[in-house]
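[step 3/7] fold_predict: job queued, chain A
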Amino acid sequence: MGVATLVNPIANLILIPLFERTHGNGGIGAALSLLLTEIAIVSIGFALVGRAVIDRQLVRRTGLTALASGAAWAAGEATAPLGWPVSLVAAGVTLVVLAWSLRLVTREEAAVARRVIARKLPFLRRG
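[step 4/7] structure written:
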């Protein structure tokens, strides 16, 4: 977290004025600054835990998740001219279909999700 206290303010000082000047929206710079801060924190975390936690399967799953997320974003962007509801549905359907077909969610994770949903939304329970 110490890195965040250094990276984020410095990135904000550079990126907010830059994006305000070039795009008329300093919020984009702030968002990019936050993204860079999170990448730095995660990278340090990966370096600290090493191969004890990060294995080939995790790297594969992360890459496939990034691919599915990118495809969902692309579907949302492609359908944006049709309005945000269509764009949201296109992105959501794309993500769900790819997550299912790429088997990104394990059976155990799906079972946990079903239990949580059943507990939080009792009207969805079967039987």
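[step 5/7] annotate
Residues 55-127 form one domain.
The chain has a mean pLDDT of 91.
exit 0
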